[in-house]
C-alpha cells in the first residue's frame, strides 16, 4: 500500500499541530512497512533544520520532498510533484479544507486519476474559523459539496468535529480517529516551585485573556506565589493586548511571556508545570493536552475542546472558559492534597499511553487504510 500526503507545512516546521501529528503518523506507517510519500513546502523551515529542498529524500518519516515556494497558498512545485505521484499511490490523504492546493489536487484526482481520497479538515470547519474570509470559504464548501463522491472520506479527530463535518457537507463517509502522539522521554520533575502553563499559538481563538482575568479573580493564585508561564510567539497585536491586560490588572510580575519553545525545552516546561491550562473558545483536538499528559501533567481544558475524557479518567478538568469558572477551578486545584495531585499525575500519563500513544494505536489507521484500499 502506498499513501501520499500533500501538506503545506511539515516537520521539522512548527507552524501548527498537523506538522507533528502527520509526521508521527507517517513514521509509524513507515515502521509498519507502508510506503509513504510526503510533498510539502519550505514554510517555517529554518536554516538549522538543514533541509535539502526540491529533492526527494528518504527518512524514517517516509519519502519527502520540501518544495521551495514563493507563494504559500499557490505552491506550484508542491502541486506538480503531488500530481506526478498520483499514478504511483493507492490513497491520497489531504490536509486542510481551505488550503487551495488541497482543493486543486482533489479536483485533478477526481477528473484524471480517481484514487481514494482521505481529507482531514483539521479544525477549519468550526464556526469560529469560518468567520475569516467567509465568502471565499463558502465557495470552497459549495465546490467540495458538489464534487463529493463515494471514494471520498473525511477524517475527523473528535465527535464534535464529526458532527460539524456532517452538518457542513451532509456526508456520512467519515472516519473519526484522534490525534496520536509519539511520546518523548519522560522528564524528571524538578523539586522547584511549579507554575501554571499555557502553551500554544497566541491568537484570539485561544481565549488567553479569560485565563489572565481568572488569575485576577483567583483567591489563591497570588497568595500561593504561583506564576503563569505563557509559551508561544506573542509578537502580534493579540500578544500586545495580553501584555497590556497584565499591566492593567497588576499581574505583570506573576505572568511570564517566554516566546516559542520546542524540543527538550518544551518537555521540561510541561513536566515542571503544576497544571497546563487550555481555555480555547474552540479546538478540534488540541495536541497540547496530549503533550502535557505525556509528561504526567494534568490539564484544565475548556468545554470548547473535546476533552471531557480528562474528568472521566481523573487526569484533569473540563470546564467553561468563563473567567469566574476558571478562577474557581484554579483555586480548587491549588488547594488539593498532594496525594490527590500525585494520583492525577499518574492518571495523566496512563491516559496518554493507553489512548493516544501512536505506537499502540497506529493499527487503527492501518486498518482504515486497508479497508479503503480494497
Structural features, described:
By secondary structure, this protein is an alpha/beta fold. It has two domains: 2-182 and 358-372, 3-Layer(aba) Sandwich (Rossmann fold), CATH 3.40.50.2000; 195-355, 3-Layer(aba) Sandwich (Rossmann fold). It has helices at 17-31, 76-86, 100-113, 127-130, 134-147, 159-169, 208-217, 237-248, 263-272, 287-294, 309-312, 323-334, 338-355, 358-372; strands spanning 2-6, 35-41, 57-59, 62-67, 91-95, 116-120, 152-156, 174-176, 195-199, 228-231, 255-259, 273-278, 299-302, 316-319. The strands form two sheets. The protein has an eight-stranded mixed beta sheet, sandwiched between helices.
Q: Mean of residue pLDDT?
A: 95
Q: What's the domain count?
A: 2
Q: What is the H/E string?
A: EHEEEHEHEHHEHEEHEHEHEHEHEHHH
Amount of helix: 40-55%
The number of distinct helices, counting runs of at least 4 residues, comes to 14
Strand content: 15-25%
Report the radius of gyration as a whole number of Å.
21 Å
Structural class: alpha/beta
State the major sheet: 8 strands, mixed
CATH architecture identity of the largest domain: 3-Layer(aba) Sandwich
CATH class placement of the largest domain? Alpha Beta
